[in-house]
Amino acid sequence: MPSETIFRRHRTIPTGNIMHILTAGVDEAGRGPLVGSVFAAAVILPETFDLPGLTDSKKLSEKKRDALAEMIKEQAVAWHVAASTPEEIASLNILHATMLAMKRAVYGLAARPEKIFIDGNRIPEHLGIPAEAVVKGDSKIIEISAASVLAKTARDAEMYALAQRRPQYGFDKHKGYGTKQHLEALKQYGVLPEHRRDFAPVRNLLAQQALF
């Protein structure tokens, strides 16, 4: 069962009955890393579901996230994962690229939600659906928690795939963040097409290389 800090939204109709409404949760993963896409997921859950232990993906082990991701996909009324590429991040900046990924996730849903709850303090423009930003929503609203799990597991899958192609960078370990291992690999092996060239560590390295 969800923790007490996680709640659901319902609407009371004139007869006094409670009718389940289609509520979507939206969250992102991968804003901070130096490489790869930024992902977003949108999830609509049914009125009843069995997702034991579901909470903010950052509080879950990788094994638990992977298991929950499969359960969410099986039980959701609708779900969709989308991304913005490193090229789009460089063109738009990371904030606007994240908003674009969120819009793509919402528009990709097979069912249209009546209300959307988005983790954070910003809402993508021109969604066309009533939306509310919820700070720390991934720990408060179960649909956002579900979206956080799908976005995070999709982002990690991209890093594992990149690690298979470029094992010397250690993407399977640091997931693209600017760790010492990653920065040393950048200096030794160079910048990849998947790296975010507008992010300072990558941009600075390219500028240094241009001097020689």
TrEMBL record:
Catalytic activity reported: Endonucleolytic cleavage to 5'-phosphomonoester
InterPro entries given in the database record: RNase_HII, RNase_HII/HIII, RNase_HII/HIII_dom, RNaseH-like_sf, RNaseH_sf
Localization: Cytoplasm
Domain RNase H type-2: start-end pairs: 21-211
BP-aspect Gene Ontology terms: DNA replication, removal of RNA primer; mismatch repair
Keywords of the record: Cytoplasm, Endonuclease, Hydrolase, Manganese, Metal-binding, Nuclease
PROSITE patterns the record matches: RNASE_H_2 (PS51975)
MF terms (GO), sorted A to Z: manganese ion binding; RNA binding; RNA-DNA hybrid ribonuclease activity
Cofactor(s) named in the record: Mg(2+); Mn(2+)
Signal peptide start and end residues: none
A single cellular component GO annotation: cytoplasm
General function of this protein: Endonuclease that specifically degrades the RNA of RNA-DNA hybrids.
Similarity field: Belongs to the RNase HII family.
The name this protein goes by in its record: Ribonuclease HII
